[in-house]
Amino acid sequence: MAQSKKRIFDGLYAQLEETDGNVVLFSAKGEPSVIFEMTNPVQQLCTDAEQYMLFQDVLSNIVQTLGEGYALQKQDILCKQSYRHDVPADAEFLTRSYFKYFEGREFTEIRTYLIITQEAQKSQFVQYDPKKWLDFHSKVSKVNDILAEKGIRHRKLTKPEVNEYCHRFMAFQFRHGPFSMTNFKASDEYLKIGDRVIRSYPLVDIDEINLPSVIKPYTQMSVNGYGIASDLLSFLTSVPFSDCVVFNQVVQIPNQRKLLRKLQAKAKRHGSMPDPSNKIAKADIEEVLNRLAVDTSLLVNTNFNILVSCPADKVTPVTSYLETKLYECGIMPSRTAYNQLELFIDSFPGNAYSFNPDYDLFLTLSDAALCFFFKEHLKGSENTPLTTYYTDRQGLPVCIDITGKEGKVKMTDNANFFCIGPSGSGKSFHMNSVVRQLLEQNTDVVMVDTGDSYEGICGYFGGTYISYSKEKPISMNPFKVTREEYDLNFGEKKNFLKSLIFLIFKGSEAPSKIEDMLVNQTIVEYYEAYFHPFDSFTPDERDGLRQKLLVAAKMENDYDRYAEKMDNIEEQISSPEPPAQIENNALVLPSEERRLKLIRQCR
């Protein structure tokens, strides 16, 4: 009976199950893993080096929290996608046309996964240890808390999502929509899957380890002559001819005491042989030992691997591009990576402990290793109710909040902004697009323009367009006050009118207190009489007026002469006729004649 061929992908995983609140993926050797999907917190080309340092601290905190016997695996998947945008059926014609223009445009999408893996005991059988099992779930919960506390968007993958993630990695298909498996063909140079080629580029050749002597979480790059902070591997977003790039980053945390004893013994061995290279090696080991004694850094085994999918005839230019960019970072990638199939299998999610320690892993400090972790995300749409679409550097629409204060993230409480540019640079075209989007969201827009640039959009949306010339200037009546203004905000309107009157009356000279009081009282009484005009006297007002006239009549010098006519005072008050026409010429005091006349006119 012929021996069956060994299936290389058989036995990659032992089990996928949901237990104790976590979806756990077990490798063939029994190592449990929990997978988070997260968003790198640093926006590409943000120019802020501090953000890279903050994320470096978060990663270092996670490594310290996990401790010995755990591995941190991070995969950044940069895949080409086709742009799609769901436009409502009742959307405006201009909006539908806008998104139709970008339909199907290719762009790079970054999806990031953080995988926590616990090391299994190296034995023929996997033994269940309740303490280690509880410790694993506790460490996963702590990592979740760290990410939440630092405001990094993340979530645990569900069981169907983990299953799909592993299958998509095997097919190396991360485009949205359905995918299918195809035949594999492995060679020393690459893997061939259908009409595509997958090649692995390890960053480090452990026989040489061509890495920079000093490493930081970011590098400096020049844009238009200005130096800005950028990720060490930010060029992965623009690898030519590739349809998918996966950057696999693995950090294993071994037993520290065992490694320290091994390093101390190695330093003594180098010191026992008087040779220049041995002296340098001994000095380097002693420097590492001193660093470990002072800082909280850990010794870790690491592997960094870039997997690129591209057409078969484009392998050479892709390789040349990556080698050039890595050389600019001071990294010389491995040229002897002939174990392509093994590297591909070891890069599967949850396979952090499958690398061969003899030629795939190299020992370094955790702080240095974490500097190579990819930390950037591309610009995306903001979470805001006031949507305004612009295009990003990839030429795709992204929604931003131009006010800076309406979105979920408040950047300012002042919505003022300006658009500046030379003549013909497209300022009016740009603002027409912004105003259109604001109007479609029922936003009130008032514009003052001297070039008739917005007459078309005003007519399209049925707005009111007011034009003027020297012969027909725009005029206004500042003293016109509506009932609503009077009831709700008359105090502010009154102060405006008072300032206007004094500007006309006094110019730049400040008014006196008497002038201010008189003008203020006049304005108040004027609008009080306007909005509450006199209709008629109430009975109480009539009685009070009668008493007032009687008292005034007694105080006149000719009281005796008109005493017999005092009974006609009521008639004078109630009569609609002018005082001069009242029969018998009843008493009309000089001080009251004008008031009575005004009262009858008001009726």
UniProtKB/TrEMBL annotation:
**InterPro entries, per database record:** F-pilin_assembly_TraC, P-loop_NTPase, P-loop_TraG
> Source organism's superkingdom?
Bacteria
One of its Pfam families is: P-loop_TraG
Identify the Gene3D superfamilies for this entry. P-loop containing nucleotide triphosphate hydrolases (3.40.50.300)
Looking up SUPFAM superfamilies in the UniProt record yields:
P-loop containing nucleoside triphosphate hydrolases
Where would I find the TraG P-loop domain in this sequence? 391-530
- PANTHER family assigned: CONJUGATIVE TRANSFER: ASSEMBLY, PTHR38467
Q: What is this protein called?
A: TraG family conjugative transposon ATPase
Q: What is the lineage of its organism?
A: Bacteria, Pseudomonadati, Bacteroidota, Bacteroidia, Bacteroidales
